[in-house]
Design goal:
Elements (H helix, E strand, L loop, with lengths): L2 H22 L11 E12 L2 E11 L21 E5 L5 E7 L6 E7 L7 E7 L4 E4 L3 E5 L1 H4 L14 E7 L5 E9 L2 E2 L6 E3 L8
Antiparallel strand pairs: 1-2, 3-4, 4-9, 5-6, 5-10, 6-7, 8-9, 10-11, 10-12
Length: 202
């Protein structure tokens, strides 16, 4: 064995003795919870008949953890049924639509031409019971919601049928309706056209 090999072997003998003493005295090595220990043994030979065994230990920390995010709540479905028609004989136009799943409120958009621009004619948060009406809008209602007793289910607009009424002289109007909830506004309905009694036809 060469001089360098003898020095290395002596060092590992001393280290091994110290480790054995610690184990015999009841001492223990504490590793962080969740860690993984890997051991490897390497044998080097400097000349025939002589070898030195080196033991190495690698401690690897715990694998990173990820917290799954909750699925985003979907916006309401598209309003599938919506129709505009003449109202009374005083220049009214009515827009009627049916409720959709997951909607807590609705917005009615209106425009003077089918291509727009569309602006909000009315906004009704059915669950909160708040309404915002633009100029010319005379009514926004639903019999189950406007006449007690009415019990709303949290997060769900219980009434099934809604009606919007505006007074618009003799001009035709174009409308679309969208439901909304805390996640945002759902897709718009088809565009419908309404005209007052005696007004310009769509």
């Amino acid at each position: 064995m060469t001089r360098g090999a003898r020095r290395t072997a002596a060092a590992f003998v001393v280290a091994g003795a110290a480790l054995a003493a610690a184990c015999s005295s009841g001492s223990s090595v504490t590793r962080p919870r969740g860690t993984t220990t890997r051991s490897a043994t390497t044998t080097t030979t400097s000349n025939p008949g002589a070898s030195t065994t080196l033991a190495t230990t690698t401690t690897v920390g715990p694998a990173p953890t990820t917290t799954p995010t909750a699925a985003a709540r979907p916006v309401p479905a598209k309003v599938g049924f919506v129709v505009a028609s003449s109202g009374g004989g005083s220049g009214e136009i009515e827009v009627n639509w049916e409720a959709v799943t997951a909607a807590i409120g609705y917005r009615v958009y209106r425009a003077a031409s089918p291509s727009g621009p569309y602006v909000v004619g009315a906004d009704w948060d059915v669950v909160a019971g708040t309404k915002t009406l633009a100029q010319g809008v005379t009514n926004l209602w639903s019999p189950p919601a406007d006449y007690p007793p009415f019990t709303s289910v949290p997060g769900v607009a219980t009434p099934r049928h809604f009606q919007y009424v505006e007074v618009n002289g003799l001009d035709r109007r174009y409308f679309w309706v969208a439901g909304y909830n805390a996640a945002g506004e759902g897709p718009r309905s088809v565009v419908v056209c309404g005209t007052p009694v005696g007004g310009h036809h769509c």
